[in-house]
Structures are given as C-alpha cells and as structure tokens.
Design a protein that fits this description.
Blueprint lengths: L2 H13 L2 H11 L4 H5 L7 H14 L4 H14 L6 E9 L8 H15 L3 E7 L4 E8 L12 E6 L4 E5 L5 H12 L2 E11 L2 H8 L22 H25 L9 E8 L7 H4 L5 E8 L3 H11 L8 H9 L3 E6 L10 E3 L1
Parallel strand pairs: 7-9
Antiparallel strand pairs: 1-5, 1-6, 2-3, 3-4, 4-5, 7-8, 9-10
Helix pairs in contact: 1-4, 1-5, 2-5, 6-7, 9-11
C-alpha cells in the first residue's frame, strides 16, 4: 500500500471508537467473514491498525476502497466539523423530477469537465440524503483523499450542506450542483453549525417551536410571615414574567444545537456622551459573535434567569425564526444623528 493509503487508514482507526469499529468494517464489506472474525478488537489501536494494513494489502485494497470506509464513518457520524449551508435558486420546470441516478451521472459529468484530477463518490443515506465525497487534486497532483469535501443534498429541495469547502472547489461545485439539479444559481444561506441535523431542520423548516399557553408561578409555602409572603409573591411574579418572555422568544421545547451567531454591524455610532464618534459621517463597523455549546438554549436560560434583559431582542430571537445565524445589521435612516430602526440582511 502507498503511504497515503496507510496514513488514511491510520487516521480512520484512531478516529473511529473501538466499540464502533467492528460495525463499520461490516458495513464496508471489503473483508471476508474469516478476516473480520480474526480481528481482535480488545487490542490497542496500534495493533488493530497493523492487522488492518496487513489484511488490506492481502486483499489488494486501494486508496479508493479506503475512501469508501471513511465515507461510511462520516455518514454515521455527521456532527464532526463545521457545516455551511447553501440554497439553490430559480429551479427549472423539470427540477422536481430529478432522481438519484440522473443526478449522479450529471453531477460527475459536469464536475469532471471542470476538473480532471478528482475523485467523487456518491451514496444515498437512510434519511434520503445524498452524500457526496470529493477529493480534489490539481494539474500536477492526484486527488488528496486526506482532506476531502463532503456535500449533503436532499433531492427535490433547494438546500445543500457542505463541509471542508475550499475556495478552489467552491465555484466548480456551485456550477456542477446547479446543472445537475436543474437550477439557475446558488447562494449562501447564512447558517452554519457542527450539528448537521439541527441546521437541516432549521433551514428546511422542519423545526417547529412550541409555545406554552400558561406559565405557573411557584407555589407559596405556608406558615411564613406576611411580609415574606408578599416579597416572595412579587419575586415569583417577576421570575414568571422573565420565563414567559424567554419562552415567548425561543419556545418551550428542545432547541436546535447551534454553536455561534455572528452579527456584522454597519450602523451609525449612537452615544450621547461621545459626540466625537456620534457625529462621524462614516458608519461604525464591527463584528459581534456569540458562542456556546448550545447557543439557543444558553440565550433562553440567560433570559429566564434574569442574566439578560427581557424582552429578548429580535436580533437574537430571529435566529430560529429565520433559520440563520449570520446577520448584517444596517440602518434604515442615514445621518449622524439618526435614530432610525435597524434592519437585518
């Protein structure tokens, strides 16, 4: 086996948990029953790697076969790496009739016309998603299987999800996708995240916010002084109001997992105590980024607990409503002393 093949196999064995390795090899189907039964999964990762290298050389497996194994692991574990979303534009009359075989042929054909040195594999997942693995090369080098690009597309929908997209591949991929899906163009959908299911549900409007109709105040305890009862009743009412405002903004159920939200500000600087900045004709430009393991849940928790003020600003509550986590905020009304509303683009 070539060094690249050995390196890819070593990476895969390190990446796949030992308890999942047997099932992944079974789905791969490149080893015989006897070879799979001879594998001792209680051994160290190094020993397992050496055993697999020996078996792959015995079966004369190539880099292309190992790319299949990596693709199986990627499809079974989609929440690795950052996914970016795109939306196909202006569908043609026959866009809804494109089926898998036709899409595979057209996509590979168009991409091969644009670039010779590449490797493309296409598989359909159990949830009807079409997964595409692209290893890109150059005029003087073979496809780099160590840094593949993954594309996920649901046929008959305008949405595309991409991971590890390079600047070189982006225009070529856009052209191949639009032609294979019978569309006229493609644009960025301004949504990204590590959880593919979450961003898919947001972008394809499969996520439904659940808004409760009634909020209960905490029960009053008996045998307490009247003053304490009044204080706790007032505090309970304030807490209930905060929870109401937070859940009114984000709903009452499980929230999609997003890791960040980015706001590009291009507005007038407003501060009555800073006339130098306020009177400048140029707009104030900056980037504001919120980050968390589960950003929407964190925002709802902050509003419910009083850490953040209520009601929640539309700049934050519009994330699940619009299915986006990248916004450009500008002013409607120009001018140094403008107090006009802000808009999100």
């Amino acid at each position: 086996m070539y060094d690249t093949s050995k390196l890819l196999l070593q990476r895969l064995v390190r990446r796949i948990p030992t308890q999942m390795l047997k099932a992944t090899l079974d789905k791969w189907g490149r080893l015989t029953v006897e070879q799979r039964q001879a594998m001792d999964f209680t051994q160290s990762k190094w020993a397992l790697t050496q055993k697999l290298l020996s078996v792959c050389e015995e079966n004369k497996l190539t880099l292309t076969h190992l790319a299949e194994l990596e693709m199986i692991h990627a499809m079974e574990n989609p929440n690795q790496g950052m996914w970016y979303t795109f939306q196909l534009l202006e569908p043609e009359n026959d866009a809804q009739s494109v089926e898998l075989t036709q899409f595979k042929q057209q996509f590979k054909c168009h991409l091969s016309e644009l670039l010779r040195q590449m490797s493309v594999k296409i598989k359909k997942h159990t949830d009807e998603a079409v997964w595409i693995r692209i290893a890109l090369g150059s005029s003087f080098s073979k496809p780099n299987h160590l840094k593949p690009t993954y594309v996920v597309h649901y046929l008959q929908t305008p949405y595309v999800f991409v991971r590890n997209l390079t600047s070189k591949l982006k225009p070529l991929l856009s052209q191949a996708l639009t032609l294979a899906t019978r569309h006229q163009g493609v644009k960025e959908a301004n949504l990204s995240g590590r959880n593919l299911t979450s961003i898919r549900d947001l972008l394809m409007r499969q996520y439904q916010q659940v808004f409760p109709t009634k909020y209960h105040s905490p029960p009053e305890e008996e045998d307490q002084p009247v003053l304490n009862q009044h204080i706790e009743k007032e505090q309970g009412g304030v807490a209930a109001h905060r929870r109401h405002m937070a859940h009114q903004a984000f709903g009452d159920g499980m929230l999609p997992q997003l890791q960040s939200a980015v706001y590009m500000l291009d507005t007038k600087f407003r501060d009555p105590n800073n006339r130098t900045m306020t009177e400048r004709e140029e707009t104030f430009k900056c980037v504001v980024k919120f980050s968390s393991i589960n950003l929407l849940e964190s925002l709802r928790s902050c509003a419910s607990s009083g850490i953040a003020s209520a009601p929640v600003t539309p700049l934050l509550s519009s994330i699940p409503l619009k299915g986006r986590n990248y916004f450009v905020v500008t002013d409607n009304t120009p001018g140094p002393s403008s107090q006009g509303h802000q808009t999100q683009n």
